[in-house]
Amino acid sequence: MSPSVKAFFDTATNTVSYVVRDPQGAACAIVDSVLDFDHASGRTDTASADAVIAHVQAENLTVQWILETHVHADHLSAAPYLQEQLGGQIGIGNQITTVQDTFGKVFNEGTEFQRDGSQFDRLFGDGDSFHIGQLRADVMHTPGHTPACMTYVIGDAAFVGDTLFMPDFGTARCDFPGGSARDLFQSIQRILSLPDDTRIFVGHDYKAPGREEFAWETTVGAQKARNIHVGADRDEKSFVEMRRARDATLGMPKLILPSLQVNMRAGHMPEPDEQGDVMLKLPVNKL
Asked: What mean pLDDT is reported for the chain?
């Protein structure tokens, strides 16, 4: 089956969110939602999420799943807000516990922060499957960018998060805690083993030099032939060398500190203090 896919591009973070619909019914899933966040003021806004909500309501869709491909470091998730407005279960890969353990220490969260993934409704393992209406979805563990990255293969479409970008932009960085260029290469090979006509939907686009428009849909065949980092049968050794050299030149995403604290909690803010104020931490020299 071929799901109907509606994309929402957030220009502030270059993130693409998706509403994935069963073509034979009204059931849908939302993939990688965005909660708008102004870093300078510390204020949140729901404009991006509200656009998704408006589409779901206009099409009379029923949200069954709110899916995260991984714990994002460049934007905050709107999953709890969407769940409150539309329903659905929040799902992520079961290696979220590894990420929670790592960043629970970075942010000195203490024992009150649960590191068992219980903030999410469903933890997926490699090879798990679920349904969106009559549409089958299969889960593929694709670590490398982070230890918990998942690819959701839904009908003839694969939602790869940050693992792959458009062919002219390449692949994800691997220098965050728990990342691995070797793991990423192997994960990408799994994705590229899908049929060539499988549609690939990426989690971000940064409009590679020479391209005038943002884009987020490609195919397995196009990635195999033209991806500048892994295409044309590039071997693992040269990929790892390239990825490590490139990652060494990259700065941290501007929203990494608020994003990690919120997203490892399934999009929830930390618990308010005694005055009812919500605070995010700013660890110094930790990343």
From this structure: 96
For the record, the structure tokens of 284 come out as 């110094």
CA distance linking residue 81 with residue 197, whole number of Å:
35
CA dihedral 117, 120, 121, 124 (to 10 degrees): -60
Question: Residue 17 in contact with residue 6, Cβ under 8 Å?
Answer: no
Say if 265 falls within a structural domain: no
Q: Is 257 inside any structural domain?
A: no
Alpha carbons 199 and 185: distance in angstroms, whole number? 19
Q: Compute the half-sphere exposure of residue 20: CA atoms within 13 Å on the CB side of its CA.
A: 33
Domain enclosing residue 58, as ranges: 4-251
Under 8 Å CB-to-CB from 234, ≥6 apart: which residues?
Answer: none
pTM recorded for the entire structure = 0.96
pLDDT digits (tens, 9 = 90+) for 36-71: 999 999 999 999 999 999 999 999 999 999 999 999
